[in-house]
Structures are given as C-alpha cells and as structure tokens.
Here is the input.
Amino acid sequence: MRRLLQTVLVCIFTGILSACLTPAPSARVQSAGGPDMATARSEAYHGPKAAIAVADFEDKTVGSQQYRPAYGRGMADMLVTSLFNTNRFIVLEREKLQAVIHEQDMGTTGRFRQDTVAPIGELEGAQLLVIAAVTGFDPGTAGTSASARQRGGLLGLGSDTVLGSLSGGYRQAHLALDLRIVDTATGRILAATSVEGKAHSFDLGTSMLGTRAAGELSTFARTPMEQAMRRAIDAAVDFVANQTPPHFYRH
Here is the structure.
C-alpha cells in the first residue's frame, strides 16, 4: 500500500504523469525495405559478402554548440563494428589505413624476417562506400525534476508517517543522420536515406544503460544520447544491408 501511495505522489508532485506514458525509445529509417537486421542476425549467415568501407562522418549540424567532430569519428567506429558483426560485409579499414601502410613499408627495410612481413600490393579496395552526415545532434538536456516529501494525515496515515522523497528528471535525446551508399567504381549513389535515433528516460538515481560507450563517446555513457546513437546506428546497418544490390555480394 505504501509503495502504491509513493508512486501516486511521484506523478502528482513532479507533474510529469504524461511523460510516464511516453512511448519507448525509437529509431526511424526513411525509404528502406526488407527484413530488419534483428531478424537477419538471428539466423547464421555463411553466404557471400560485399566489400565495404565507411567514410568519416561529416558535420552538417549548422554550427551546433553541442556537436564535436570527435563524436562523428566515434559513431563511424560504431558503424564499422556493427557492419562487421552482421557477417555480411568485408569491412575495410580506412581510418587507420596509414598505420597499415606504415607496417608494410617497415617490412621493406630489411630489419624483419621476410617470411613474416606483410606483402606490398595486396591491400583490397572497397566496392561500396558508406557516406554519412550528422544533421541533428541533441544530447537531451531538456527536462524537469522535482522532489516530494509528504508527512502526516494523507489518506488516513498517521501524522508521523513519511511517504518518501523523489528527485529525478525527464531527459530526451535525438540524433539524425543522412546516409548514402556509393558505388566506388562509378561514383553513383545506389541508395540514400535519413536515419533518426531518439531516446528518453527518467533519471531517478539509476543509470539507464548498462553498456558504456567507448572512446570519444564516453561522455554520453549511460545516458539517453548513448541509446539514441546505438539505435540510429542499428537503423543505418538495417538500411545498408537491405539496400546493397545483390550483385555486390560476391566475395
């Protein structure tokens, strides 16, 4: 009974009862088709793969004070990892490619055993390039917070009864990406879309996410923005997997 009364007071004193009914965090992709990756990933895939690379994320947030280029690099890494984990793509390194080239060049100095050095001239080219631009970036600082402490007389409880206290807030985050899949042989855009990730939470003293964001994105770890990012990246992977023409799956 006391727990029920505390729940009622939470909604009354914070004034965010309507927020309690807010739909679950969501991600949206425009102009995509076919099965989603959640279904596809549930089945083991052993078929041919497409060779793909991910370009640096471009900043098109129109001077947003909250966005930093480092966030784009972190999200590009997330997309690379997610594409690799589908097992449908040969994902080629591009961000650290100079480090790979340097390692090959070191093998020509004569300081290494020749049967162990990486050969030159065998780097692979990507048939597909994913180009992304960040068009919306809102970590979600808007919200409300309140505290409630009620003592005595309410609903017939004794005057010394403490119903409890609440401090918390409602936060919402939003990320928008423009995506293009480009044929590197012709430069043609094969598919394009807009992806949005949204998330919200009540911060009642416990973290929303158990998985920490890595690297440059660690500032958003365990926040709605981390979840919005992950949902947008998952939606982007769905789009790339569904919109890649079948003839690219040949490796």
About this structure: The domain at 28-90+121-145+169-246 is CATH 3.40.50.10610 (Rossmann fold). The two ends are 63 Å apart (CA to CA). The helical segments are 2-14, 17-20, 37-41, 69-85, 97-106, 224-243.
